[in-house]
């Protein structure tokens, strides 16, 4: 399983852009049955989003989608693993 948040952070660091992607999260619904929504932001612009039962699940999806936008070749290579 690809750890998208870690992979995205590694690529950003390798390109001298560490910390460029930030995350905005919100929870909706009851604590035990709610849904997390996370947006990945690059320079204030949304580059990916994801939703899941946990904040980590939603962040991973947001990172995966941000990778698809910011680094499509890396995304494609990792998707094949």
Automatic annotation (TrEMBL):
Keywords: RNA-binding. SUPFAM superfamilies: dsRNA-binding domain-like. It comes from the Eukaryota. Residues 3-72 form the DRBM domain. The keyword DNA damage does not apply. GO terms for molecular function: RNA binding. Signal peptide: none annotated. PROSITE patterns: DS_RBD. InterPro entries: dsRBD_dom. It holds the Pfam family dsrm. This is DRBM domain-containing protein. It comes from Sanghuangporus baumii. The lineage of its organism: Eukaryota, Fungi, Dikarya, Basidiomycota, Agaricomycotina.
